[in-house]
Write a structure and sequence with these properties.
The complex is a heterodimer. In chain A, 46% of the residues lie in helices and 12% in strands. In chain A, helix 2 runs antiparallel to helix 14 and helix 17 packs antiparallel against helix 19. Chain A is globular. Chain A has 2 domains: 216 residues, D-Maltodextrin-Binding Protein, domain 2; 192 residues, Periplasmic binding protein-like II (D-Maltodextrin-Binding Protein, domain 2, 3-Layer(aba) Sandwich). Chain A starts with a helix and ends with a helix. Chain B contains 15 helices and 2 strands. Chain B has a two-stranded antiparallel ribbon with strand order 1-2. In chain B, a hairpin with a 7-residue loop joins strand 1 and strand 2. The relative contact order of chain B is 0.12. The chains are: A alpha/beta, B mainly alpha. Chain A: This is Lactose-binding protein.
């Protein structure tokens, strides 16, 4: 009897050992001398990052095990790794998740280590660096401790098909003076036409996606999602409603965009690349693809509403270090390398997936004589002058913000007036924002106490 | 899952085994010989593996989830006990109710799928030219990656360029913008799910049909039964165990529909019209870091599935019969 119990024990041990082995991929176990780095991205991005990391290993002798996922699986995988106590040493962090990751003791305060590394933070976009500062109550200000460095900043630019406008004999828009909505609309109407005479429209003025493009319309019209201290949802203002209405009227009233059936995101993206759309967003991460197109394009400020001031958002993704890492110094070194090293940045910029993080490199990049698009300076202007963080970037979670999009389809289809919908959705968004603010407070109290 | 064996075959197996057991005399001495001791150790080893696996990968996580469902927890830090708060919140969460409605709406596809696959199985049972090729073709969606299929169908459903609408246009019908139209988004998902599951159900039905004794049909023919009567009185009851098995497994699988939804409508569709319960749970857990709340929903969903399955077993017991 004793022997069989022993046997069962051995078997149990074996099973546990084998399951443990399955999960020890991440987390930097005792025997492995390297770091683990978890990130996400498309194929171009993976290749560029691998190249940068290979050079890091060459220079420092620190092995880096890379765990890479597609964008939509990243959050799930990271959360699972955290629940399983196998947090990667270095990993991507979203602006909107920073506070909860800090409050729960997962992200390491790297302020001092970065200072020791002798990194010139002045030479990195202020918006990018501040995005990962947090003082326990406010995120995004210059006072907070540093919990990560920007992987990149993503100024969401706007562009147009130069070849199309030239062929139509339309004056090219100015690179500094934004078009007003009133000036823009006639151009869109002129561009929308049937080019091959088969009776069907096959060229449009523009084609935009409400979830990613509405911000610019609202901001330039003087509206916003919340008040300044992010406690009050302000989507039910006339300025906001007017912007949303103008946005949807482009499709339903003026018909200068592909109609609702034709307006799925992928279609307008494909159509722009096929040369069927005049004005379209041109973000830095699109450049590697857009530079292969058959027509000329360039970047301009977004068209403006009543304030006359152009506006758009700047995204950012950060790289942070886990509190559980065995090699904090090397981990911070990897972060600063990816974020701020001249050569590493060059690798990433050459791959055309982002604008440079370093201001000096960026200025060089923008003024390159053979630059394509020609007006690369616009991206720098967005980051430095007029770009804004996404409405939910610095709140505790983004559920309140996502609520706006869930039932917006009838508005986009022209079945419901914008003002009516916004009045309806505001209380729901407010309730969610209140909840998220309460959570932030509770978490901060728990953390400090 | 014992995918290829029909429940009928499993039934036969146990009966045969029982007989075999009766014939072999049980060891009288409780396994005192050396051979028996070794065998017993091996037996323990084989028994231990699945038991430990079950404890580790099923019971422990289930218990953990149950505990988590009574807490406010963001999946990162410490859990904070809040009693029944999460469950109370569920009662007034319209999104959760909507997602449950959507999930059960998708199950309309189950009877459609079963009828189609039975019809197909009957067809495939005939001596058709290229029968093997057809069987393979129908089975291909079953072995294909669900993610790949979802992406494919997403294209097919595209309102403007999509295959489905181009096909409809061929008959002069103007198709809707399937996935962006709250009325059509659910039927679109159902059609895809039915298509994907067809091959699997068909294969099981085919096996069941082929195991029906030919003598029954011969006797029925002699008694003057037509094709429809033979189908109703013999085939249908004889494949009933397979139908039962498919209904149970399809409902369980249907209650957990997720990948298709997440890939084809990443925001839960227009007006949340395609969001399944698991999709809603996933959003709350991983997107909004409401892990405690999400586990409470998961527990409710689990209990619902359990109840439905129990009811089905009840109903099946009453309606099943034995042919001697």
């Amino acid at each position: 009897m004793k022997k069989s119990r022993l046997m069962a024990g051995v078997v149990a041990g074996l099973v546990i050992a084998s399951t443990a082995a399955c999960s020890s991929g991440a987390g930097g176990g005792d025997e492995s001398e390297g770091l683990t780095f978890m990130f996400r991205g498309g194929e171009d991005e993976k290749a560029a990052y691998q190249a940068a990391i290979d050079r890091f290993t060459e220079e420092t002798g620190v092995e880096v095990e890379v765990i890479v996922t597609d964008a939509d699986q990243y959050a799930t995988k990271l959360q699972a790794a955290i629940a399983g106590n196998t947090v990667p040493d270095v990993f991507y962090i979203e602006q909107a998740n920073l506070q909860s990751y800090v409050n729960n003791g997962i992200l390491m305060d790297i302020t001092d280590q970065v200072a020791e590394q002798d990194v010139d933070l002045e030479n990195i976009w202020e918006f990018g660096v501040n995005s990962y500062r947090y003082d326990g109550t406010l995120q995004g200000t210059s006072e907070g401790r540093l919990y990560g460095l920007p992987k990149d900043v993503g100024p969401f630019g706007f562009g147009y098909n130069k070849t199309m406008l030239e062929e139509a004999g339309i004056e090219l828009p100015d690179a500094d003076e934004p078009l007003t909505w009133d000036e823009w609309l006639p151009i869109l109407t002129e561009l929308t036409k049937d080019t091959d005479g088969d009776g069907e429209i096959d060229q449009w003025g523009t084609g935009l996606n409400v979830q990613w493009n509405l911000q610019s319309f609202v901001w330039s019209n003087g509206g916003d999602w919340t008040n300044e201290d992010r406690t009050q949802v302000t989507v039910d203002t006339p300025e906001f409603a007017e912007a949303l209405q103008f946005f949807t009227d482009l499709t339903t009233e003026h018909a200068v965009t592909p109609n609702p059936e034709q307006a799925q995101t992928m279609d307008t993206y494909q159509r722009f690349m096929a040369g069927e759309i005049g004005f379209f967003p041109v973000a830095p991460w699109d450049l590697s693809v857009y530079n292969e197109l058959d027509f000329d394009y360039d970047v301009i400020p977004w068209p403006v509403g009543s304030t006359g001031e152009t506006a758009t958002w700047v995204g950012s993704l950060g790289i942070g270090v886990s509190t559980t890492t065995d090699m904090p110094d090397e981990a911070v070194k990897l972060v600063t390398y990816l974020s701020a090293d001249e050569e590493a940045q060059q690798t990433l910029v050459d791959a055309n997936i982002q604008i440079p993080n370093r201001i000096d490199t960026a200025q060089e990049w923008a003024s390159a004589p053979d630059a394509q698009p020609a007006n690369r300076q616009e991206y720098l202007d967005i980051v430095e002058d007029y770009g804004r963080a996404m409405p939910a970037a610095f709140t505790y979670g983004a559920q309140w913000y996502d609520e706006l999009w869930v039932n917006i389809q009838p508005v986009v289809d022209g079945d419901q007036p914008a003002a009516e919908y916004l009045a309806e959705v505001q209380p729901r968004m407010q309730a969610l924002l209140d909840e998220s603010n309460a959570q932030a407070e509770a978490a901060a109290a728990q953390n400090n106490g | 899952m014992t995918s290829a064996t029909t429940p009928a075959a499993v039934g036969l197996g146990t009966a045969a085994r029982k007989k075999a057991a009766r014939r072999t005399p049980a060891p009288q001495d409780g396994g005192s010989t050396k051979l028996h001791r070794i065998e017993r150790r091996w037996a323990l080893l084989f028994v231990a593996a699945p038991v430990i696996g079950y404890l580790l990968f099923v019971l422990y996580p289930t218990g953990y989830a149950l505990v988590a469902s009574f807490t406010r927890w963001n999946g990162l830090g410490a859990m904070q006990f809040v009693g029944l708060d999460n469950y109370v919140a569920l009662l007034s969460d319209e999104r959760f109710h909507l997602s449950l409605y959507n999930t059960f709406f998708y199950m309309l596809g189950i009877p459609i799928g079963l009828a189609l696959s039975l019809a197909l199985a009957l067809a495939m049972n005939r001596r058709l030219v290229g029968r093997a090729a057809f069987r393979t073709i129908y089975y291909i969606p079953v072995i294909s990656s669900l993610a790949a299929i979802a992406i494919l169908w997403q294209w097919a459903y595209n309102g403007d360029f999509g295959l489905v609408n181009q096909f409809l246009a061929f008959f002069g019908i103007e198709g809707p913008n399937w996935l962006a139209d709250a009325t059509w988004s659910k039927p679109a998902i159902i059609m895809m799910a039915v298509w994907k599951g067809l091959g699997y159900s068909m294969l099981l039905y085919l096996a069941a049909i082929q195991s029906v004794p030919r003598s029954l049909y011969e006797a029925a023919s002699l008694d003057g039964a037509g094709a429809w009567q033979r189908f109703r009185a013999i085939t249908l009851p004889m494949v009933q165990p397979v139908t039962f098995f498919l209904v149970v497994t399809n409902i369980i699988a249907g209650a957990m529909i997720f990948t298709e939804i997440q890939i084809m409508t990443p925001t839960g569709g227009p007006e949340y019209s395609t969001a399944s319960t698991v999709f809603h749970i996933w959003q709350q857990a991983f997107k909004y870091q409401q892990m405690g709340y999400a586990t409470a929903m998961a527990i409710v969903l689990g209990v619902l599935i359990l109840l439905i399955t129990l009811i089905q077993f009840r109903l099946n017991k009453r309606s099943s019969f034995v042919i001697d």
